[in-house]
């Protein structure tokens, strides 16, 4: 059993362009258009915006200028055509209970406690508890006891369901009942897909000083990744450090 204090965020997917399709669209509509970005998401967001007014070859020339105007005007619908995929680990069940409340523009696939054996589970400790020896000892004793009870329940329930020939079904029945004693601190893993507009909403809701600490850590890490991935869509966010050492994100372009 390991005690975890920091989440891990992995960017595992991003968009690529079908340039042949873009060229065919432009040719068949007698349009010429070039963009100066090599980032698929930024190209698609610009193309989506230009289709709204058929403004190819007109107006703002650079991708950064075009998308900067989109952000300033809060025309967020074109950001819905951009997509990034993340695998997130080292987070608690408390975290994912909050995360999955973000529905519009999101997709989730989470580790199953019915099928995965939690006898080797890890647990996520809040910083405010970890920083206090007395509170940490109290928390750890509780976690270890709950984990021990889980393991004993699984063992007993496997014996209780011994008459079931299907071993997978037998294990599932045991684990789904035994998990009832596992705390919200139990570490989990989740795969998250969202579009650019949804990620911006998530960052604004969860990377501010009023958000819960664990989800704020994840939001800041995702923001740092997206600022590198797509500067034109996320560089307007500034990360600031509070007096307590934690970080928040702010932007002049809210609710895009």
Strand content: 15-25%
Order of helices and strands: EEHHHEHEEHHHEHHHEE
The total strand number stands at 8
Largest sheet: 4 strands, antiparallel
Distance between the termini: 43 Å
Weakly predicted, low-confidence segments: none
Residue-averaged pLDDT, rounded? 96
Structure summary:
This protein is an alpha+beta fold and 256 residues long. Among the domains are: 15-80, no CATH class; 134-184.
Helix and strand topology:
Layout: E1 3-4, E2 8-14, H1 19-28, H2 40-53, H3 63-73, E3 83-92, H4 93-99, E4 106-110, E5 123-124, H5 127-130, H6 133-160, H7 167-178, E6 187-195, H8 196-206, H9 213-229, H10 231-234, E7 238-241, E8 247-250
Parallel strand pairs: 1-5
Antiparallel strand pairs: 2-3, 3-6, 4-6, 7-8
Helix pairs in contact: 2-3, 6-7, 8-9
Commentary on this structure:
The chain is α+β, with helices and mostly antiparallel strands and 256 residues long. Among the domains are: 15-80, no CATH class; 134-184. The protein has helices spanning 19-28, 40-53, 63-73, 93-99, 127-130, 133-160, 167-178, 196-206, 213-229, 231-234; strands at 3-4, 8-14, 83-92, 106-110, 123-124, 187-195, 238-241, 247-250. The strands form 3 sheets. The chain has a 4-stranded antiparallel β-sheet. A two-stranded parallel ribbon has the order 1-5. It has a two-stranded antiparallel ribbon with strand order 7-8. Strand 7 and strand 8 (247-250) form a beta hairpin. Helix 2 (40-53) crosses helix 3, helix 6 runs antiparallel to helix 7 (167-178) and helix 8 runs antiparallel to helix 9 (213-229).
């Amino acid at each position: 059993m390991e005690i975890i204090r920091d989440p891990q965020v992995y960017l595992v997917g991003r968009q690529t362009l079908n340039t042949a399709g873009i060229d065919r669209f432009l040719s068949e509509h007698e349009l010429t258009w070039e963009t100066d970005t090599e980032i698929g998401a930024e190209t698609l967001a610009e193309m989506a915006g230009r289709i709204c007014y058929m403004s190819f070859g007109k107006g703002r020339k650079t991708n950064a200028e075009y998308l900067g105007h989109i952000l300033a005007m809060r025309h967020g619908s074109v950001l819905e055509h951009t997509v990034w995929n993340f695998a997130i680990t080292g987070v608690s069940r408390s975290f994912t209970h909050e995360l999955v409340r973000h529905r519009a523009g999101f997709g989730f696939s989470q580790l199953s406690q019915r099928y995965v054996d939690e006898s080797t589970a890890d647990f996520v400790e809040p910083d405010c508890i970890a920083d206090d020896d007395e509170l940490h000892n109290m928390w750890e004793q509780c976690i270890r006891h709950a984990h021990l009870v889980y393991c004993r329940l699984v063992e007993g329930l496997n014996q209780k369901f011994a008459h079931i020939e299907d071993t997978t079904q037998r294990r599932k029945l045991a684990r789904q009942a035994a998990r009832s004693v596992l705390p919200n601190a139990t570490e989990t893993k989740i795969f998250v897909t969202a579009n650019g507009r949804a990620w911006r909403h998530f960052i604004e809701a969860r990377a501010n000083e009023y958000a819960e600490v664990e989800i704020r850590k994840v939001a800041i890490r995702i923001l740092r990744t997206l600022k590198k991935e797509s500067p034109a869509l996320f560089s307007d966010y500034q990360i600031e450090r509070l007096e307590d050492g934690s970080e928040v994100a702010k932007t002049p372009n809210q609710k895009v």
